[in-house]
Amino acid sequence: QVQLQASGGGLVQAGGSLTLSCAASGRIFGINSLGWFRQAPGKQRELVARVTSYGSPTYAEAAQGRFNISRDLDKDTVTLEMNSLQRDDTAVYYCNLAVVEPDRPGIVDYWGQGTLVTVSS
User: What is the pLDDT of residues 43-57, one digit of tens each?
Assistant: First the structure.
């Protein structure tokens, strides 16, 4: 069973920085991408950033220029560096692992438990 363990959330003042980390464990097959999503109260879950197995990143417009995502395939980890945080960044952040598994079609998604980021005004 694949499991994702996220950490790094907390309380930070506007303009500050936080770094989120996620480690995957279990029987992991071909990795398509690693990424971070977030969900604010009353809103839908949205993509923040993702990075492919070969290192190509994708950022949401709100994260572009402020956040940086990186991954270590040898350790099955992904890190999200968040800078210049704003009140609108307040949300529960979820780690995502997208893989290809034997005998299963398409891409399979695994999710972490979520870590809360609160940005004070």
Answer: 999 999 999 989 999
